[in-house]
Every structure is written in C-alpha cells, then in structure tokens.
Backbone:
C-alpha cells in the first residue's frame, strides 16, 4: 500500500531516511508492543503481582511469530490493534502464564508506550543528523565570514552582507531548534500506564509501585496530549528552520543568481526531457516537507480536546500524524545535511552580483552619510531616491550621479566613504562570529544529549 | 514501511478500504505510468510521429517487469521517479523503438496523467459506496419520519424533532456533496501533456493534434493546480458531511442517551481491559478521518503557488496529500455505509427522552401560545423562563407550573395546545419529506454518473 | 480594537479593500439583521400571521438607533448577539407589534440570513475586480504572445517560452476560479429559516408557505454547512490562483531577473532605511493573503461536524473565519488587478536572459534532434548532458560544443535547427491563443453573472 | 471595520478580554512604536551617536499626536506602516533632531520590537488569568477527590473514577502548559535591531554596544522566526488544554448527563426562541477558540521559510496571525477561569449515573477477579462479555447474572469484592493527590514569574 508518498517503495526513499522508515515499520511497532508488555510484566513480577516467568516468556516472542495480515484484519473489526495482538500473544504463551498478561493495563497504555519507545529512537536519529548539519553550516559560516554578497529584502538587492553571515543565520536558526531537543525528549519519554480509565485501579495499592518501576509520569496522560502536540510543533519548527535554508539555497542556485550550487551527485537533479538540468533536489525535498508538515501538526492540536477518559476519534487521529512528521523530518534533515556538508559556493558570482545595481546597494549608507550636511535624513533620503531613479533610468553609477548632485566638500568626502564595502563586511563578520558562539553552544548540548542517550 | 497509519498492515485496514489501497499501490502507479506512455505512443503513432509498434510494445510491459526497490533507490537520487522509470522501460524495449519513447513529454506529464487515471478509479470507488449510503440514510429518514425524539442545541434538549428529520439532515448533507462528484470528475479527468515547459514545443505543429487524440485540457495544467486543490476540498467536504453523521451517532449511542447503537459486529468495539464495552468504532473512524483530512487539504492549497513552469517543492508536496485524502475518505465512507445500512434505533428510548426535562421541550411553544394573552412575547418569555427555573429547582412539570401561574381562560386553553407533541412531529415529517426529494435527485444523478463511467 | 491586521486602521487598508470592509462592518451587520427581521415579518404578514404594520416598522429602524457598545456587552453575557438585538428592537417598536417580532425564527436564522446578505454583496465586489483583472491579464498575454523569455523549472532555465504564454497561464488559472463564482453564489444565497430546532414548528402548517415567500432552501441548513466550507475553499482557491501570479511576478521583478516591474506608484515599495528600494508590494500583499487564507479555511471544514440541531462551538467558530477570508481576498484581488493593469514588461531583459545559459535552453531540442542519428534518445541525452557540463565548466556555447562533438552530416544539420527559437515561440503562442479563448469564456460568464445580480 | 469576530464591537467582547483588546489596539501599537524609537535613541545617545535630546523628544509624543486614518492610507501605499509613521514623527520633532531619528534601524526592527513589547503585556495578562484558573481547578479536584462518577471511554461508561480525578486531569493539563510560560517569555523578549539587512552596518563598530544597551539577541532575528512560531504553538497548546476541559464540561452539562452546570449568570445561555435554555456559553467560547486557533498557528509556521534578509509575504503574513491567537486565548481563558471558579457540581447525579449500566462499570474488575479461578483471563473476559450481553438484553444486574453463572466458591467470593466501589475511588484519589502536587509546582512557578515581571 502507499497512500503516503513516504511509504511508497517508488518515491518514499526520496522523502524519508531508511533508518527512520525502520523505526516506524509495522515490525518495529509490534516489537515495541511486545517489549512494552514484557516490561510491564517485569515490573509487576518485581512486586509479586505476576509470575516471574511471564516477562521472559513475552520477551522471547518476536514480530515474526505474529501474522501481520491477520492482525490487520482483526484490527479493522475490533477498532484497535491491541485486542488481536493480545489474543495472538496469549496463543503463544504457556497456559499458566496467559491469565497474567497485560495485568492492570489497557490498550492505550500499550500503544502509547510503544509510541514512546519509537520516539526515543526517532529523536536519536534526528539528533545524529542534526549535529553534522550544524557543523557543516558552521564551517560554511566560518569560512565565508568575509565573503561579500548582496543582501536581499523582498527579492531586491538591499545592502551588502557576507555569505558567512547568511550561513550563520541558517545555522543559528537550526541551533535554536536543536536546543529544544533535550526538552522534547524528556517531556515525551514518559511511559503510559493508567489502565481502563487512567486510575490503574486494577493494580490497587500496588499501582504507584508498579509505575515507579515502569518509569512513568506524575499521572496518566491518556487524555493529556500536550506532549504529543508539542512534539509535533517542534518537528514542524525543525522543518521550518530547514525551509529557511532551502528557500535561500534554491534561489541562490537559480540560473540568474548562480551564487551556490547544490552538491553534485551523478544523476541527481536531471530531467526526463532536458539533458542539461541540475535541479536543486535537496531544496525541493526540504521545501515539500515544510509544506507537508503543517497538515499533520494541526491534527495533533485538534486531538488535545480528548473527551473524558478516552475520546472517540481524537486519539486515533494522532496515528495519522506523528509518524508522518518524523518521516518528513528525516528526509528533510538528510538533504539539509547534504547541503551543509557539500554546498558549492561561488564567491566570484557573489562579488559580481554586488555590482548589478551600480552602487544602489550603498544607497542606505550614502543617505546616512549625506544627512548631516544636507540638513536632515529626510532630505538625504529624498536626494538619494532621486539619484537612484537616475541610476535605473540612465544606467549610470550611483556614486557618479551623487557626485554630480552633491557639491559641498564635507558631503562629498562623506559620500566616498559610503561606497566602501569594508564596513558592511566587517559588520557581517562580527555577527557571524557572535552567532557561531551560540551555534557551538547548541552543538555541545546536542553532544551531551547523545552521550546521555540510553 | 508505514509512516502513515493508512499504509500500515497492522492498522491500515481499519482506516481505508482494501479497494482504495489497491488504487494507490505502487504497482498500480507503475501500471498507470506504463499505460500513460503507451497512450502517448499510440496518439503519436496515429500522426506518424513514432513507429506504430511502440505503443503495443510498451503496453505489453507490466509492473512486475520492473524492480521497485531499485527504482526507489534511483528516485531518491534523481529527485523524480520518471527518470529511472524511463531508463528501466528503455532497457525492456527493442533497440529501434527506444529513441521514440516519451516523445515530446516530460516527467510531470507522465505523473500527472497517471494520477488522473488513479483519480478516475478512486472516484468510482467512492461513488459505489456513496449510493448505498444515501439509500440507507434515506430509508432511516423515511421509516422514522414520525418517530419523535429530542432536538438538541448546545448539547441541551431544545424542542422535539423526529429521528427521521435527523436522518434526513444527514442524508441531505451527504447528497449535497455527492451532487458535486460529477463536476469533480469532469474537472479532474484532463490528461496532462505539455512537455518540458508546458508548450509541447518538441512536437512542433503536431502538438495540438496529439493532444486531441490524447484527450487533454485547453492548455497544460502543470502549474494550474486549482483542480487538485478543489478535489482535495471536495474530499474534505465529504468527510465533513460524514462527520456530522458520526458526531450525532457517537452521542446518540453514548451510555446516558442510548437512542441508537452502531450495528453489531461480533468482536467489534471491545476493549482489551473491559469485557462489556461496545465502542462506536464506525463513528471513531469517521471522526478521526475528518480530523485528519484538513492537514492534507491545506497542502494542496499551498501548492497552488507554483513558481513559473514547474516549482521546486510545491508539486512534490501534492504527493504527500492527495492519495492520503482518498484513503481517509474510503475508510470513512465504508464505515458510514455500515451505519446507514445497519444502525439500530431505539424509539422507546427516544420517547422516554422527551420526558427528561418535564415539559421544558415545549417552553418555546408555551411562550408563543401565551404571548397574545400576556401582552407580548417578552412578557411570555419571561414568565416561561421563571416557570422553567421552578421546574429545574422543584422537579415539577412545566405544564403544571404554568397552569398554576396562568389564570386567564384563553391563555390556559392556548397553553394546553402548546404541550401537544403532534405539531412538532408534523413539522419534522414535512421537512423530512422535502429533504428526501432532494436526496433522491442526488441519488439519481449519481446513478447516471456511474452509468456514464468508462 | 484590532486583533486582526485586516481590521487595523494602521495597516488594514494595505490588506483589504475599503468597500469590502464596509460590507463586513458592525453597522452593516446590524443593518442586515434588521433587514432580515423585516423580510420575515413581511413574508409572515402576507400569510396573515403577523400584522402588516410590523415589517415597515422594523424596516424604519437603522443601526444608528442601536447602542453597539451596549449590545456588545450583552452579547458577551448572553452568548449570541441576537438576544440583546431583539431586546433593543422590541424597545423601539410600538407595544402592539412587539409580540409578533421574530415569529417562528431563532437566533441562527437571523445571523445566517444576515450573513447571506453580506455574502451577496461581498461576491459582487469580488466579481467587479475579477473582470478587469482577467481583462488585464488577457491583454498582457495577447500583447506578448510572441515575446520570448526563459521557461523555468525548479528555478532553473529550462527551455524558451513566451511572456504571453506565462500571462495566459495566470489568466487561465484565474478564469478557472472565476468560472465557479456563479455556482458559489447560487449555493450560498439560501435564506436560513428553521426556528429553534430547524423544523419551523412554531409556524405550523404555514411553515412552507412562509419559506416560499422568504426564498429558502429545500430544508433548513443550520447544521448542514457544506455551502460555507465550500465557499471558504473557493476563496482560498482564488487566493491560490493569485498567488501563482504573485510568485512569478515577485521573482521576475527580482534584481537579478528584472524582466518585469510592479506598476510604479509614488512612494510605494520604499524602505524606511534604503532610499533606492522598490519592493514588490502588490506581490507581497497577495502572497501574505495566500499564506493567511488556509487558516480560516480549515476552521470552516472543522465546523461541518456540527452536533445535533446546533453545536456548542462549531457555529461560533465560523464567525472567526468567513469574513476574514473575504477581507484577504479583497486585498489580494485589489493588488492583482493593479498588476494585471499596470505591470511593466522588459522584453529586452527577457531576450537577454535567453542567452544566460549559452544555449542550454535548447538542450532538450538538441537531444531530440540528435537521437535518430545517434542511435537512440538515451545516447543523445547522454551526449548533450556531457556537452552541457562542458558549457558550464568552460563557458563555451552549447551549439559550439556539440558542433565539435558531432561529425555526422545529417546530425549536424538537425542540430542547427535545434537552436532555432521560432518553434518554441510558435508553440507558446499557440497555447496562449487557446488559453485566451477559455479566458474569454469565463469573462463572458462573469459579465452575465454581473448582469443577473440583483 | 470588523473582518474578525474578535474585533467586532457587536460580538468581540464574547470572544476576547477587554484588557487584551487594549494590548493590541492601534493606539497601543503606535505607542509601542514610539517607545521603541525612543529607546533606540536613548541607547544611541549613551554612546554619543545621537543628541541626548532626541530620546525625550520622541518619548514626549503620543499616539494622539498622529492621524491614524492618514497613516493607514499611507501604509496602503508604502507597503509597511513604519515609513509614514517616521514621516509623521519627523514632522513633530525639532528640525535639528530629525536627522538622527531611527539611526541604523529598519522598519522590521521597529515593528518587531513593538511586537515584543505587546507580547510582554499580553503574556502577563494570560499569566494573571492562568493562576486563578489553576487554583480553581485544583480546588475542585481537592474537594471532589473521592466523589465517585462514571469514567467514560469512546462515550461509553467504562469504569468508576472520581470527579476530583477528572478535575485534576484538567488542572494538570493546564499546568503543563503554564509551566512553559516563563520559557516562552524569555525566548520572545528579545528586542529586534539589525538595520536594513540584519548586520547593523549603519552603526559600524558601535553596533554591538548599542545592542547591549538595547537588550537584544545574540544576532538579529529578522528571518529567524522560530520564537514566533513557537509562541503560536504554545498559545494553541493553551487553547487545546482548555478545550479538554470545555469538551468534558459541555458533555457533563448536557441534558442527559447533568452532572455539572456552568456557573449561573443572569441572562447567560438563553435563546432568542426558547425561554428554558441554559446553554453552556463558556464551553462554547472555549471550543470555538480551540477550533479557530489552528488557522493562525500554521501561518506562523509557514512564515518560517523567510527568504534571504526579508521575505516578500511571509513576514506580513505573521501580522494576520499572532495577535489573533492572543485574542482567542484571552477569551478562552476568561471563560475557563469562570468555569474553574464557579462550576456547579451534582454529586447525586454522578452517583446515580454509576448505576445506569447495572454493574457493567465493574466488568473489568469482575473479569480480573474471576480469571484465577476460571483458568485464565481470556476465559474470564469471555464469560463477563456474555454476562454483559444478558445485562443489556434482559435488564438484570451484572452481579446477579454472574452469581448465576459462577458456582465455584472462591470465584464467588472474589466476585463480591469486584463490585466494591472503594478500590476505584481510592485509586482515583491517589492520582488526584499526585497530580495536585505537580499543579502546585506549576502554580508556584507562575507566581515567581509574575513577581519577576517588570
């Protein structure tokens, strides 16, 4: 089946990483459900609530022992997969252990805990790509901290920046999101155990003791889904930060601009019709992931309005959304890492681009320089605006036009300094350096986090 | 893989119909792509542009001849699946035919046309379930046109309606959406053929003639995606109309209300913990589909802002959305049909429910009846409001309280008539009948449409 | 107040037209509510249900007679505005008429009918801007049907098209949406009249007769909201079609491309810092409207799951969404019309752009031309791919490189024809003309619609 | 104007608090923009970059000195409000100060900083309502920790809980969101100062020093919008947590359930037609806010893909979204506080509700009790399932049916204990207490935060 492009064998590998696909495969789900029942049995055995043989007996089972197609058919009937799953498990267990399986638990406990186990792995995969991506972007920023290029606002050349400054903005944007990863992990790694209505009444006084062994939250979260919605929002933030990068790269790599190229991979970016094409595939994948991410995210927010002790619809709706977000994120990050590690930069094109507007990039500086001698910023702004029009109409340089228009010696001297590229480069380099300090901080936190990961 | 619940072998059968899964399987996609290339070759052969042997040679190929996993790996590299697909096709064709394959076309032509072929089948599947669902709901409305029950506003008993009136509202809501199906079909069934930049320049003067044989639009729609967004909106409307039904059913089937029950299916709606549960699985599936549908829909609207002759991201984003919407719709409609054909109705519980508020359901009628003799509607409203408070506080009947408060003979007489259920039932039956005429019209149109379907 | 930018006196005029703001002002709402009560009274008087003096007495009232701030305070208490509104109306009517006001109706009837009256005016305003926008785009397409420029896919130069072809794509995209306007009008212009629970029981046997005079639907639509969701989707489609235009214009107007300029308006597009800026304000407004439109749209789809005879929340949520969509659409269309009527085109820049890639724009044509003599399309594609790499690396022309690589006389002759611009221009012009026929059809339909508008 | 219901004088007071409306009024915006320019002037004066008289001269101006309507007209022309705003400011300043206004800054610096100042106030308002709401919910949980009522899953009675447990779930859900408020504040309270392209080049070497006085971020955030998207997500989480409460309350207050009532306010919840109605207005407002919140939220995520140094559309789109979210949140929280502080609880109805299913609420406990003696959980589950069917069909009690079916003495004894309410109540009370500890922690953090607020 493949309703989702992410799951298609034909196009899925373009959109999601293979490792992430493994984390959310049906087999991985079943394995996590088995592991959850085993962990529950172990915790309960420790308190004498179930026989000690139960946990190892469950743990010895594997997804291969179960008939996925049959489980699917039964799920369509039952409404949730845990009912046929338990039935299948019971059939595999020794008769004397069977009564003790799933003691005190409910369907949602098993599925939400299996989800948490998936999330743990999925976040580790993202962390493993986030680090090198940050490193690559930081290297670009460092290396090009003084490589001048045009700054653009509303698609128009505005004033000079450096390419390093742009890369630092990408890196810092991603670092801000990375810095939240540990918090997301902590918030999400709460096992779910509440029993039918969230009070774990089936375990009686032993409830809290079981929970303690089973590492869980202050209280069951069957119908407190903030952690899930928040995680979805974080994934969408991640794709948003990557989309900033991809938006800029796709434009910088466009034919007319040509200041960067996506890393060359033989056969990549071609066209079935046009032999010369080198389409920005990485940017395309990232941008499509960003577009596609909002959809699943809002489902998770919808699902927060979960009625009473278990809702009819809202919880099931989450299943349509969270793994999808991880799939999209894995693909987007995979491509972003490729860009961060291999983007080709053309400083010569960037330098040439600075001259495209014949000095208009310095219009702001010129107006600021002229303001004192022209009796005010508004007058200076107006004069430069008029000069800019002439630049556009007659093809002259702004400096030349202004030299013609400005006679006063002090003003002329100030004017010359306004067309100096150095202050813009120095300012850009300064902020690049400051940003990189922050990026390194986020990078280090990520490294710690990876270290602490079980 | 299964990032999407719809694609999971474990839970997918709960959320999408098997037939719809077949329509959007990878194999079906490949078959449609092969069919598209064959149709193009046939159209071109008719004009002497390619050898007549090409089309049958392509048509003889099948998805089984292609290595899906290899195609997937190559797609991840190339950025689009058509490049490896064509390479694989060429390897299978006689050498002399190979140069003529895909003449004049581009990647998007093949994928969009293959999509259109999928949509044709997908819409036919929906139509096949829509008809019986409308029939079932119309039967419920007809049968219970005079079965009284409480009308509810804001969750509160308001005034009497009939169950048939409620069912007619469901039916008419769905009929309104059904009535748009033919328009959606016509709007979407345009083959895509534009070549690299949408001008079909590679075919020269023969372009229009090829198009005519290939049945296409007035102009290529590579970057005019209204039909796709509009189709997505229609699918979301369909799920919205079904969600109205499911919202009502889930509530009517709740323990305290108990006026309907979802059709009984052994093993359905159980709980892994609670042996007595009969959860409303059909409503749950429909409501989760409705929640999940908005996400993919907005992606399609985003994608309308498609840059120039092919965008970097927006088109790919559509792949994440449209098949998903069909998957959700197929599952929701499958369950809605089940409800329409098998919902159990408890007229006795409905009748009993009318007495729950001890006459307050007639408060509106009472106020209207008293207005003339009490010197105005505002005064009557105030009196009944006060009486209603007494009903609530003391447990008396509204009729009894009002009889106590109202002395004037004409008013008392009017009052008695206000507590008659018949006018409410007659009014509800009247609108039920009118609605059913409209429903039948939509039903007939659907039947015509099915007949006209190739 | 101004939670919404659309409503702000400071920035609102940038985002919405003044006329549309008038349609959805509080005063206009009150006037429509008064008009609704008057129309109801008139319909009922015609059947002898209320005194004939009632309708004129209501119609004589105006919003200025009501205290908006007081109504707002009372609405916050009551939960809906109709309760304080009726109270205020009653206070203004002669005592003998007061009991007859609002007979048989409920709050939702008044608000939904007032909404329908707003929609009628709002759609007429959009139609009034759609026509000239289509005309302007059609003129651009017509005038530049043979003005060659680069076709771009994934941001890269792909193959030549004409600017007229691009403008025709914009026009046709908008025409497709325009063509739906009459259907949206018809679908939405159903008065709402259902009484408390939608059965109009308060009017007894007279119900249908009143409805007939009051022009309404087959049955009440209190909880059938497809028409509202569908209208929202149509408005989002409109903004999507305009966003296609704005996406292209913003890029074509970017510094490096410079093929078009937004119409010059003194003071427009400036910067508080940079005197030379001419930011594409029209595109900016349209793109922000497109981004903002998805939000309100999905609320309307959510609201379709309306419980029973009136939901607690879903109906109120619509109030947050539909007028907002009209506001955004009015502003986007206002700016699109400006672009359509005044866009500055630079054919010289377009012509110069064709040479930017030194012949690569003809790579597709070259490969097609070489295929027969090189023994297949794959071989030709590979050769041109290799040649393209040399063009990129060494700065040579593709024609020159290929002439060097290809020796065979027939192949060389075919090659020369491949670099002819004319076939691309002719193909583009052909589709331009075909598209314009469709655009004219939509334009004519819009004109008819305007004529038929009351 | 009122495109947004939030801004309407007629219905706005129902949906947003008056205080929040003040925070986002046009006048408040202008005041914040003036304050921003004054603060910038002060920071620059401290470094000798502008005359010391400038800051006080700016600070002496007030929104009343400016012509809002004229500014609006000019904004519609210019594309951003800061250009006419600065022009108006300059006209008010002494000639010698005018050249120094806005030195080094750009439009976005002023608007984003003014936004940050709004957010500071807006978050303080939310905090001021969050505290008492948490207190109220905690009191309900505390007071009813042992008040038994039905736990419901999928709308069906499942097993007993206590009302305190339900209230604790609401409180803990809200506490989780509250606990993030300090983080959101810190993340958002970064002044924006970057100049035209984010490098503050106009201030040269003084850039960092100015920034330090002006309290800003490590680097400009013109195009790093994670903080904005993240804040939007947090507001949506807040409304999601409140929607959980409102979903439950609206259902518990429904006619058939009647276990709670929204606090009585004279005139609240009435109907224009039905004198007896007491609609749950607070829940309605909260649920509509939750529905409406997703829309603006996704706009903010879209806007993260901000091109280069300032995007054409994405930044403007934010203006349509963030204040709207605060408006919705203020109204939802206002009503939630009302519920938390005044909800009427009917323990007698709750107690009566436990008997509705004639013992089925204890089916889970019965099956667990019978498992050991019946040779396994599956057998016990099946027996109780069969007994439950008899309960439903014949109207008997589950205990009676099971007593009939079970003969074995140990099993019968275990059975009796299964119908004891106490274990369920004790378990619910236990989790209530644990949750309240967490709630108190969040409450204390909020109190600290309020204390630290400038």
Residues:
């Amino acid at each position: 089946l493949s309703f989702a492009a992410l799951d298609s064998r034909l196009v899925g590998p373009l959109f999601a990483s293979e490792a992430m696909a493994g984390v959310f495969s049906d087999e991985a789900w079943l394995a996590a459900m088995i592991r959850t029942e085993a962990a529950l049995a172990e915790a309960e055995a420790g308190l004498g609530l179930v026989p000690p043989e139960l946990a190892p007996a469950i743990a010895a089972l594997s997804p291969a022992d179960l008939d996925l197609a049959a489980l699917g058919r039964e799920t369509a009937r039952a409404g949730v997969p845990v009912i046929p799953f338990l039935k299948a498990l019971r059939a595999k267990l020794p008769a004397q252990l069977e009564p003790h399986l799933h003691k005190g638990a409910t369907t949602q406990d098993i599925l939400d805990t299996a989800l948490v186990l998936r999330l743990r792995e999925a976040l580790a995969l993202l962390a493993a790509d986030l680090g090198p991506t940050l490193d690559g972007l930081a290297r670009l920023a460092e290396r090009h901290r003084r490589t001048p290029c045009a700054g653009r606002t509303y698609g128009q050349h505005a004033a000079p920046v450096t390419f390093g400054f742009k890369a630092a903005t990408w890196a810092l944007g991603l670092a801000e999101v990375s810095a939240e990863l540990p918090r997301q992990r902590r918030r999400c790694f709460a096992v779910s155990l509440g029993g039918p209505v969230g009070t774990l009444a089936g375990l009686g006084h032993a409830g809290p003791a079981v929970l303690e062994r089973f590492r869980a939250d202050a209280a069951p979260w069957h119908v407190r889904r903030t952690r899930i919605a928040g995680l979805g929002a974080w994934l969408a933030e991640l794709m948003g930060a990557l989309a900033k990068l991809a938006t800029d790269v796709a434009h910088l790599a466009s034919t007319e601009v040509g200041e960067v190229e996506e890393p060359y991979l033989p056969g990549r970016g071609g066209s079935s019709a046009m032999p010369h094409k080198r389409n920005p595939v990485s940017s395309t994948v990232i941008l499509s992931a960003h577009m596609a991410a909002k959809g699943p995210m809002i489902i998770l927010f919808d699902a927060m309005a979960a009625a009473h002790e278990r809702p009819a619809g809202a919880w099931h709706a989450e299943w349509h959304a969270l793994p999808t977000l991880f799939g999209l994120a894995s693909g987007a990050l995979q491509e972003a890492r490729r860009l961060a590690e291999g983007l080709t930069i053309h400083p010569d094109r960037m330098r040439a681009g600075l001259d495209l507007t014949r000095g208009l990039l310095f219009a702001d500086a010129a107006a600021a320089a002229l303001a004192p001698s022209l009796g005010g910023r508004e007058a200076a702004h107006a004069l430069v605006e008029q000069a800019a029009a002439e630049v556009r109409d007659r093809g002259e340089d702004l400096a030349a036009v202004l030299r013609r228009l400005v006679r006063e010696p002090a003003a002329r001297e100030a004017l010359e300094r306004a067309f100096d590229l150095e202050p813009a480069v120095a300012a850009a380099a300064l902020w690049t350096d400051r940003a990189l300090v922050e990026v390194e901080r986020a990078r280090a936190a990520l490294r710690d986090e990876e270290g602490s990961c079980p």
Observations:
- Residues 107-143 of chain A form the longest helix (37 residues).
- The longest strand of chain A covers residues 156-162.
